[in-house]
Amino acid sequence: MDSLTLTAPDDWHIHLRDGPALSTTVPDIARWARRAVVMPNLTPPVISAADATAYRNRILAEVPAGVDFEPLMTLYLTDDTTPSMVAEAAACPYVHGIKLYPAGATTNSEAGITGLRALYPVIEAMETHDLPLLVHGEVTDKHCDIFDREKAFIDSALIPLIAQFPALRVVFEHITTAEAVEFVEHVGNKVAATVTAHHLLYNRNDMLVGGIKPHLFCLPVLKRDRHQLALRAAVTSGHTRFFLGTDSAPHARHEKESSCGCAGCYTAVTALELYAEVFDEENALDQLESFASFNGPDFYRLPRNTAEITLNRVEQVVPQQLALGQHEVIPIRAGESVAWTIARQTQ
Asked: How open is the CA angle 60-62-65, to the nearest 5 degrees?
């Protein structure tokens, strides 16, 4: 198959940042996605419906003319979030979930939660209002090996949470392990997961062998190849509760290539083509449309897109760098080729 036409896809997990960065990140994602769930970990974080509405307006101001793109906003769960704030968010047409970051787990997570059980009244309000909880699923205990943090979170936090709130819709974001795959497959239809292109394409050998590759450093960190293979099997299986979420996260080059490089991979500029490459390698191009275009909106209870996008098996070279305000960001596979190219879209 040398050409593939899909229902227009969405990105169910992305970081756009704010300010001058938006002039790069927004056009990059709007090039191929009709909607994107925008993460709220700004500085300061997006904690109210009013914050989300204002941020949405800043994003929309950067959408190229004639392009149909809708940002789907989220709030940042903090120790100070209240049930009334949840009710307000649920009433806002622009807010589609609340994001849980354990404090210290990743970029701009300092305002994250320090304990989950104290927030059970807030979680109960989310269940009542049917507002999804989006979870960065890692423990931050310094005694837990970084490669085991996702599994430890499932056991210590996620299983008790779902038992306590069985009607709560949960998105287990950017899963990275075979254990997370197995959990989502068997826990029931209220739990889904996003999977990134970089966790499908790479494992920890790619990041570490021959010297650390800072532009492959992300959190959750890349795992062993057996976990990468489990993720590939999950997304190409046709299972309806795995869907596309890039977790594309721009960082200025000088901050990535430093003595303590920050975590995050920038994939938005060629993300759909990278996913197509994975599905092609797995002889599962017939499953890409469900993963990219159907499973996400079905879980979020939103309509599927009606437009289409066509990919051709034509190599393209990923840009060496992209502007990021006054700095530059290095995308994954910079200067190298991707096997697919977007040919056209319909409105």
From this structure: 90
DSSP class of residue 101 equals -
Residue 62 tokens, joined: 């950067």
- For residue 309, what are the CA distances in angstroms to 34, 277, 293, 312? 10, 16, 10, 10
Question: What is the DSSP pairing of strand 327-329 with strand 322-324?
Answer: antiparallel
Strands 70-76 and 95-100: parallel
pLDDT tens figures, 292-306: 999 999 999 999 999
Catalytic residue at 130? no
Sequence-distant (6+) residues with CB within 8 A of 152 are 138, 139, 141, 144
**Cα separation, 134 vs 186, whole angstroms:** 18
Give the pLDDT confidence score for residue 1 in this predicted structure.
Answer: 80
Closest to 35 (Cα-Cα) out of 63, 4, 55 = 63
- Residue type for position 338: V
- Is there a contact between 316 and 337 (Cβ–Cβ < 8 Å)? yes
* pLDDT for res 24: 97
Closest by CA to 273, choosing from 13, 68, 32, is 32
**Catalytic entry in 2, 141, 247, 298:** 247
Structure tokens at 312: 């051709």
DSSP 145-212: -GGGHHHHHIIIIIHHHHHH-TT--EEETT--SHHHHHHHHHH-TTEEEEE-HHHHH--HHHHHTTS-
CA 85 to chain centroid: 24
Question: Which residues have CB under 8 Å from 40's CB, separation 6+?
Answer: 46, 47, 51, 52, 55, 73, 74, 75, 76, 99
Min mean pLDDT across 65-74, 220-229, 338-347 is at 338-347
Length of the chain: 347
Largest CA distance in the chain: 53
For residue 122, is pLDDT > 90? yes
